């Protein structure tokens, strides 16, 4: 027996009106009437008495009401369980981030989402952009804030960020408005995440610049310390350089000619329901962050 038909009958009895029940359950009046007629045909006798005052159960219907209520309850329980399995109430969202400047906006979205969907687990992953792109491609991440990469996703641009150079404050070019890109070949180069597919490595390859790597590090703050000690120059995204205090010992200069990197939010091409819903919370906050 169709549990929706049982629920429709109970709603009609509760409201005392077929038209009121139709409105409550999202049917047209004729659609609700056909549903109830189908149920009566299925059981083999009339279930409702109709009058100007509304509808009332027949004696036969009263005999079935307890069973009808149980069937309707089970139908609702099954629907809730199916929704949970689809990810409306349970599941996991894996959010990746390469730019800490967006942490506050992302955390706000996570808080709002978690309040509405307490059964969904959220995992926050901090990684470089290329690593996040690989995770998206493998289905190991759902929603990522990163530099643009060649990965199949739904991409929302957030910002065009300039690539810049940290040089020691005492360097002859420190007082210039911009740093000539070819001058990178003249200083010891501090490579951040050596061997990785980074914005820095892509820039050097694109411009054909042969930087002389002298020091390596996996952290921009480590790179800043090395620059501040007068050991060389380091490329860095301006957004990543925000908040890094060189204490006057290093200078951040934009490149000449300039080079920009597109930063955005990437959602997997076939996201789970929780991931798609999370993106609806996150994107407005990220776009309004003013970063």
Automatic annotation (TrEMBL):
One of its GO terms (cellular component) is protein-DNA complex. SUPFAM superfamilies: Periplasmic binding protein-like II (SSF53850), Winged helix' DNA-binding domain (SSF46785). Keywords: DNA-binding, Transcription, Transcription regulation. GO terms for molecular function: DNA binding; DNA-binding transcription factor activity. Residues 1-58 form the HTH lysR-type domain. The keyword Secreted does not apply. PANTHER family: HTH-TYPE TRANSCRIPTIONAL REGULATOR CYNR, TRANSCRIPTIONAL DUAL REGULATOR HCAR-RELATED. Belongs to the LysR transcriptional regulatory family. This is LysR family transcriptional regulator. It comes from Candidatus Scatomorpha merdipullorum.
